[in-house]
Amino acid sequence: MGVPCVRVPVTDGEATRQRLAEADAIDDGYDITVEEEVLYVPVTDPTLVPDSFDVVEFDAPVREGQTMPADELGFAPSYERLGDLVIIDEDDPERAQRIADAIVASDLPVEGVLNRASKIKGTERVRDWEILAGDTTEAVHREYGCAFELDLAEVYFSPRLATERHRVVEQVREGEQAFDMFAGVGPFVVPFAKRGGTCVGTDINERAIEYLRDNAARNGVADRITALCGDVRELAADYEGWADRIVMNLPHSADEFLATAVELAGDDCTIHYYDIQPDTDPFGPGERAIRSAAEPDYEVTVETRRTVRSYAPGEHNVVIDARLRR
C-alpha cells in the first residue's frame, strides 16, 4: 500500500531529511528507502511539505518493530503533532481515551495527548483542553527551521497553518519592514526576521507577547523584532506609513481592522488578509472590504486568492494577498 513520500536524488537526501524534520513532517512509521539513486522519505501530511519538493505515492516498508496507534485500534485515528504533544478532536469521551491510550502505547515520540474541549473563544482566541495523557499543555513546536515555545491553554496556535505560513515567509525580502497585527507567539514574524526583515508584532494576549519575545530570543532574532501587547488600533499611530508587509490573520473579524492596516501601510505594501467565507463567494467580501478601506489613496492589486483549508461545511478559510501602492 502506497504512502506519501518526498522523492529526491540520493545526493540531496540529507539536506531534504533535515528540512522535512524541521517541518515535523517525517513519518517515523516507515523506512526511508533508496531505489536506483532515488530517495523516498515518508511524510505524515503532504501539506506540511514545501512546494519545492515532489510528493509521490510509494510502497515504503513499515519500520520493523514500529507500532502505530492503528495497530492497537484497528483504524487510523486523526491527530496532529505539536512538538511532543498529540492533539485529537473527539466528542466521545470513551473513544477519545481509547485513542490517547493507543497513541501512548505506540512508538510515536509523545509526552502527552490533548483533546479539544471547546471552540476558540474570547478576544485572546484560546480554547479549553482535556489532558488525556501527560500533565501539560505546553510544548516546543518546530516549523521550517524555527522553534516556538507555547502553552495551548494560554495562546492561540494552529500547526495546520504551517504550509500557509511558509508560503508567506518565502515572499519576504531582506530589509523589509513587516507588521503582524495579531502576532501570537510569533509564527510569522520570527521567520520573517530570520530572512532579514525588521518586524513588529502586536497581540492583545499578554501571554502570547511574552512567548513571542522568548521565541524571538530562542531563534536569535530578538534584535529584529518589536513585540507590543495591546489592541493594534491603539498602537498603530507610532508606525503610520511604516510597513512593507502586513499580516492580518484574524479571519472572523479582520475586516474591522482594515482602516488600521491602511494606516500602517507604506507607499508599496502587501497585505495578507485572512477570511472565512461561504464557498459561494469566498473571496468577494474580503476583496471589496480591502478596496473600500484603501481606495482611492492606494491602487489595489489582488495578487493571490487562495483557499487555505476547509473550515466548516460550506465555509472556507481563505487568504487574499493584496498589494497597495500609493
What topology does this entry show?
Blueprint: E1 3-9, H1 13-22, E2 33-35, E3 38-42, E4 54-58, H2 69-73, E5 80-82, E6 85-88, H3 93-105, E7 112-116, E8 129-133, E9 138-143, E10 146-151, H4 162-169, E11 177-180, H5 189-194, E12 198-203, H6 206-218, E13 225-229, H7 232-235, E14 243-248, H8 258-264, E15 265-278, H9 284-294, E16 299-312, E17 315-325
Parallel strand pairs: 6-7, 11-12, 11-14, 12-13, 14-15
Antiparallel strand pairs: 1-3, 1-4, 2-3, 5-6, 7-8, 9-10, 15-17, 16-17
Keywords: Cytoplasm, Methyltransferase, S-adenosyl-L-methionine, Transferase, tRNA processing
Pfam families: TRM5-TYW2_MTfase, Trm5_N, TYW2_N_2
InterPro entries: MeTrfase_TRM5/TYW2 (IPR030382), SAM-dependent_MTases_sf (IPR029063), TRM5-TYW2-like_MTfase (IPR056743), TRM5/TYW2-like_N (IPR056744), Trm5a/b_N (IPR040601)
Give a description of the structure.
With 326 residues, the protein is α/β, with parallel strands linked by helices. The chain has 3 domains: 3-58, 2-Layer Sandwich (Alpha-Beta Plaits), CATH 3.30.70.2580; 69-136, 2-Layer Sandwich (GMP Synthetase, Chain A, domain 3), CATH 3.30.300; 160-325, 3-Layer(aba) Sandwich (Rossmann fold). Helix content is 24%, strand content 33%. It is built from 9 helices and 17 strands. The chain has helices spanning 13-22, 69-73, 93-105, 162-169, 189-194, 206-218, 232-235, 258-264, 284-294; strands spanning 3-9, 33-35, 38-42, 54-58, 80-82, 85-88, 112-116, 129-133, 138-143, 146-151, 177-180, 198-203, 225-229, 243-248, 265-278, 299-312, 315-325. The chain has a 7-stranded mixed sheet, sandwiched between helices. Helix 3 links the parallel strand 6 (85-88) and strand 7. The longest helix is centred in the first third of the chain and has 13 residues, at 93-105. It is globular, with a radius of gyration of 21 Å. The mean pLDDT is 93. Keywords: Cytoplasm, Methyltransferase, S-adenosyl-L-methionine, Transferase, tRNA processing. One of its GO terms (molecular function) is tRNA methyltransferase activity. InterPro entries: MeTrfase_TRM5/TYW2 (IPR030382), SAM-dependent_MTases_sf (IPR029063), TRM5-TYW2-like_MTfase (IPR056743), TRM5/TYW2-like_N (IPR056744), Trm5a/b_N (IPR040601).
